[in-house]
Structures are given as C-alpha cells and as structure tokens.
Fold these 4 entries.
Entry 1:
Amino acid sequence: AAVDAAAAGDVILICAGTYNESVDLPDVGRDITLEGVGTVVISPTTGAAVFADNGPYAGNITLINLDATSADVIALEFTSGINGNLVISGSSASGANLAGLSAGPVTGEVWITNTVFADNEWAGADITSERPLADCAIPDDIPLAISLYGVEASGNTGEGITAGTRCGNIVVANSTSDDNGSDGFLLSSFETNSGVIVTGSSADENGDPPQGSGSGFNIQ
C-alpha cells in the first residue's frame, strides 16, 4: 500500500519484522527507495520478495537494509529492465528457489554494497547492464556500469555473481565469492573500451565437486 501511494522520490521506511508478502513496484516513472529500520525480512509464500515486471522500470530503485527470499522464484526480480539506477545496500537476497537477484538490462548504474547473496538455487546475483554505446565513445571517459563493494556470495548452486555489460566498466572491490557450484565471479564486458577492475577481492572453492565446475574469477 505504501508503494502504491508513494510519490516520485519518496523513501518508504519499513519497521522491523517479517513480511510474508510480495512488493510490486508499479511502473509509473518514479524513483523509489525501500529502507528497513531494524531487521526487515520480506518472505512471501509465493513469488518474488520485491519485483517490477510491467516493462522496464522508468526510474531509480534503491533498496536498503532488506533481507529478501523467495520459496519458488527469484528473491529480487527486475528482469524486465530498469531505465535508471539500481542501488542495493546493507541487504541480503538468500535462500531463494532461483536467483537471489536478477536484474537487467539496467541502463543506469548498478551499485551494490555490503550485501550478501547466499544459498540460492541458481546464481547469487545475475546482473546485466546496457548503458548507451555512445557513453563509451571516448576511451578515457568510460562510465561506471556495475559496482560491487563489500559483496559476499556463497553456497549458491550456480554462479556466485554474474555481471555483464555492453558499455561501461565493472568494478569489484573488497568482495568474496566462495563455495558456489560454478564460477565465483563471471564478469563480462563486450565493448572494446570498457573493462573489468578487481581489487581486494577473493574467490575460493568454487566449482568443486559435488557442486560442479567453475573458476574463482571468469573474466570475459
């Protein structure tokens, strides 16, 4: 109800507790922030915890201090795209029947900080960025596409973190991806001038039997 009533740019503060519901972000072209105060768990009986599926979301989405899960699908599901930025901070997307997070294409920046993706039945997080190619026309002025700071991915059946962009740099800093069934980090940049930057991060025991095969860092 709060999301439905929100105006552009509103911050919705969520009191501590467990909420057995799905939060649908209606696509009305507005920026929106969901922020937990205390421990906030969004755990629907069915469906995604937070999702936007009515075409590309026409605004910025910010999630702060939320723990999300799903019994049967993706915990945080933005596969119809986001025509803006996606910011996730101090949160978790774990124990989902599919991915913890699936987002893209995102045409703005993706910032994920101090967030955990654990024990999901596919990837911890699957992120696709599609910044306009014109943004990458100047080699010395490549924009940021996906930033992962202080992210943890562990115990996921497939990849820990999958992140791909056709334009813009991917930055992974002070992050870990351990004990996943496939690659710890699968990072792809498809535009000549863009790149992948990894610093202060580690990936250990990914793809070990019996889970499957993979690398700590698979950079393409």
Note: The chain is about 0% helix and 45% strand.
Entry 2:
Amino acid sequence: GRPQLVDRSPNVEARLAQLDYMRRLWFEICSLPLQQRRALLLNLNATLGGDLAVFAYLGVANVRQIGEILEMDPVVFAELWKELPLTDARIAQEFAMTTQAVSNRRSSARERVARRMRAFERENQKNMRRG
C-alpha cells in the first residue's frame, strides 16, 4: 500500500489559541512603560523564543505599529529594524541610557509580562474546563 500522509500541523483550535496568546502578549508588552518596551522589544531574539518579526508575521502588529509603540520616528525605526536584535550597548546609545539601565528595564519587563501571561493562561484553562 501507499504510505499515508500525516498532517503534523497544529489543528485549527491550537493555531487560534497560539494567535490569541500572541495577541495577549502584545497587549501586555504595550502596557509596559516606554523604556521597558524598548529594552525588551529591540533585543528580542530567537534564543528567547522568537524575534520581533513574529508579531508582524502573525498579523498581531505590523512594523509601523511596532515603531509607534516604541515611540520612534518611522524612518529611524525602519533603519534599526535591519539591525535587530540590538545589543544592550546599542539600545543604550540610541536612547541615552546606560547599558545596565537597559538590562534592568528588560529584566523588569520580562518579569511583569511573564507574571501576567501566567495569569492569562490560568484564566484560559479555567474557562476551558467550564467550556
């Protein structure tokens, strides 16, 4: 017999849940103070679970919207986009901060977003059990 082709892609519900999660993640990032948003987003890289382009790829936020949430001139941001992810030193230089301040703000941002996303996931699980 012929080999069976198996669809290994996530089912529709899983894809929608992922999209919902990413929308909520974007919402939480947008609620951070400006300097935390900048420190977090401009340094996102694949080792941290994805880069900034994933928001644009999924249709959660386009490049213009990302630049706006960072409160950056669109032309300046378009140039920086090509260099992403930026080092702490580069972010510090761009926004007249110390490298340590950038690191501290990103750490605070990650903690806050992680805490809020855990609460979001718990709420989703509760709602699914009620389902």
Note: The chain has seven helices and no strands.
Entry 3:
Amino acid sequence: RDMIIYSGGTLKTSFPESAELVSTLPGMDRKTVNLKKAMDDDPGHNLPVGLNDRLVVRNMPKDKGPVFGHATLSGEVLFPGQYPITKGERLLSVIERAGGYTAPAYPRGAVFTKERLRKIQQSIFDEVAACIEREHLAKNKHKDATQRLLEQIKTFKCAGRIQVSVTGLDVQRDKGFDIELEDGDTFHVPPLSDAVRIAGAVRKPGLYEHDGQSAYRDYVKAAGGYGSIADEASVFVVKADGGTRY
C-alpha cells in the first residue's frame, strides 16, 4: 500500500485485481496481490516489501475496458443518475456508488430492466402480431375482435424487466440478486406505497388503501365486487417485485 501511495496511486486504466510483487532476493520470489485488498490493509495482500522489490501493475484487459457502458439508477437512491460501468461490474457495486437507498425507499418494489432483454421481448411480440395478421385475418374469422387485439399488440412496448428479489435497505445482504450489468440497464427504486391497485373486471377499478392485513378478496369487495364478465377462477396478483401469484 505504501508503494502505491508514494507512486501517486494507480491509473484509471490499471487492473486492480491482480498485480505482481517481485522480490530481488535469490530465487526471484513472485507473489500475486489484489491491489484493492492491499489498499484496505488486508494482511494477505498488503505484503511487506524489501529493498529494490518491484510491484508490477498491469493495464486493464481490453475485455474489461475502463468504461464498458452506462447504467441508470433512478428513484430512491441517494445520488440518482447515469453511471459508467466496467466489464463485469455488478448491480450492487453501482447502488453503493449511488450512495445506497434513501429512507423512504422500497427496494422490494425495485424495477430492473435490461435493454438486451427488451429487444428480445419486443421481437417476440412483433412475431406474434405478424402471425395473427397472416393467419387469423386471412381466414376472416372474428375479424373485428382480431383486429382490435392486433392493434393492441402492435402498440405494446416491452420493458425488458427482470424480477429481482431485494430483501431490504441493507445493500450488502442482497448478494442473491447481484446481477452483472450491461450497457443500457436501468434500476428504479420507488418509495414505499400505501395503496393497492385493483384493475380488470371489477365494478370500481382504482387505488385502495393497503392495511397490511386484507387478502385480495377484501380488495375485490372494496372495488364493488366482480363485474358481469369476470373470470373469477383466473384472478391473479402482481407483486411489487414483478412476480405473479394466482
């Protein structure tokens, strides 16, 4: 660590995970050290050095560039914005760089999207629309209803959302969802909501107060009950994390 400090620190293009400490003593002993851990005074990496020892710091490999792309954090993080990311960088690293969550944050409801996944989803929807237009409309069966469905599909924009299981405000404890980032990824953290949205075939769709005790049937009742065309056997609940319960 002292050698790094005395030399003015490492460059942005330096590879911090693997440097080589070469001894000038007989035998030319070589040790691999992690510079990040050395700077944190980890005794396994902040090794003692002898006279004329050399510390060889390599440049970042091309596939781990200095800047690989950008990820955007928004909502209830301390410093929302667009962050440059390096190859292999993971989500928790950027959340920590953004200062972590704010007090009103509800990480369980976070929305994580990937541009690559969005493009795949949109391609699938476009293929479905083309199939409907080619097969169903050509047969002239239920043409009006099919045309309406086709128009809805064509205007639908996929989000590319990935369900993540965030347990709470402690960033370090959520290693289970520490996903590797790609250029264009977004992570939005909403504030804690006190409402439940009821949609579909009920008499009074809308937002209703969440009391922490009611079941979904209670909210259906609050919304005036099922409508005449409701399929009660197919009711489902979309949780805040994007997961679905039937």
Note: The radius of gyration is 27 Å.
Entry 4:
Amino acid sequence: MKISIVTSYTNPEERRDPWREAISCFEDIADEIIVVGKNIPYEFEWGIWNKEFQKAFDDSSGDWVIRMDIDYFVHEKQIQKLKNNLIKYKEYPGVVFPQYQFFVPTKYSYHTNLCLAVNKTKFPDIKLNGGTDKILPTINNKILNFKKLPWLDVPIWQYDGIFRTKNIIAEDRARFARAWHRYSNNYDKRGGPTKELAYDAWFNFQKTRFKNHIFNVNIQDHPKYIKERLKDLKENQFGYSAFGIAESVSPSIFDYLKSYKNKSFFKIKSKIV
C-alpha cells in the first residue's frame, strides 16, 4: 500500500505556518508528498484551491491520498494505527477522522469530523470539489456520505493560527474576506475588506468557538514534531493566550456536556463499520 499526502502553503514563513514541522510529520506517514499553493496570488479567487488540490490528487501515485492542511498533524503514536486502518478499509472510498482544534497548547476542542483520506485505487473518479471551500471529496458531484464510511479513532491535531500575530491574522482574514466577496457578493461572517473589519469578525467568532475548548492536554503529550515550537510561544502570538480569550471566556455546563457527548459518540462510531 502506498500513501500520498497533498498539502498546501503560500509564504509559510511570513504567515508563520508550522510547515517544516508538518512536513516532518507527513514524511513519517506518506510515501509521497505533493505541495501546492506556492504560487497562489495574494488576491486569489475562491475556487482556486479546488483546482490546486485536484491537480495534486490527479498527479498523486498513492493507493490512498490524504489531504492535509499545513497545520494538521497526526500523533506519532497513531501513525501505524492509521496505516493499519487504511489497509483494513481498502474497499471503502474514504475514511473519517476527528479533528482536535487548538487555540492554546493546553486546551482543545473536539471540533469536527473530516474525510481527509480517499481511496484513489478503488475509486479513481473521486473529485475534491465539494462544500463551501470546494475541496471536500465527491463522487458524481455528491459529497461522500460520512455515515457510510469508517470512522477512525486517529485524531487530526490542528493548530489554528496558533503561531501568528494579530497583524498577520488581520491581513490574512481580510484577503480571504475579499476573495469570498468576489465569489458570493457578500462578506457574510467575514466582516469586511479591511484588516480591522476582518480581524474583529474573526476574533468575535473565535470567542464563541473557545467555549468548546474544554479538553486539557499537557504540552509534552502533543505530537513530537510540534512540541518544541509550542514551548517557545511568545506573548504576541495567538497561541500564548488566544489574545486574552483563554483568560476571559469560560465554558458552560452545556458546553462541557455537548463536547463530551460528541467525542464519546465518535469513539463509539469508530468501533462500528
């Protein structure tokens, strides 16, 4: 069995993406790594990621192709389990992972479920063109039904802008807001075209999301690839205190119950095919 990983980054040093650490992780998982997005223009068109990832998928030679953002990690203790499951579920078009989202290193949320690994050998007609971001896997223009796919108890650890400063985030959010406006003719929840409007919208949204960051973890328990960088977080970086959110937002009992329920359901579902 051969595994390909497709990922993307644009100016990763400027954007403070953990790209070196992520690539190191991917090298322990995959036989082939394809990086796209290096030449994405600053003012990009919304559907461009579909074209980039689809070309990478088409060019990949793996039996399984895993789409990983450049801030996604698999814990080294889970890599063999991941590979064993891809062999086990070789008749399925894809598999589903839980995502653990980090704003600060000591807490995470059970954020969502993701179908990141798709079976190219058995299902070569899969396209990465579904959903709002136009990168979810589809067959015959229908997004793969998660209910019919195996769920793997192999978490994706996501470090959501954790190393970025306010200015980097504001600039990034503004250009994404402008791209969304060109695509949809509205800013929706993205605030507006300026750094100030886009940052304020993003920050307020992060405050609502942090209520779900109820699971505790020690820095020593993070994937080995990222631990040292997490230890070196500076006060001007989001991951230091989520720009004060970690000190001002407290989950409710409802938030705790909801989060534990969702995480427990995934663990149960991962035992059933």
Note: The mean pLDDT is 95.
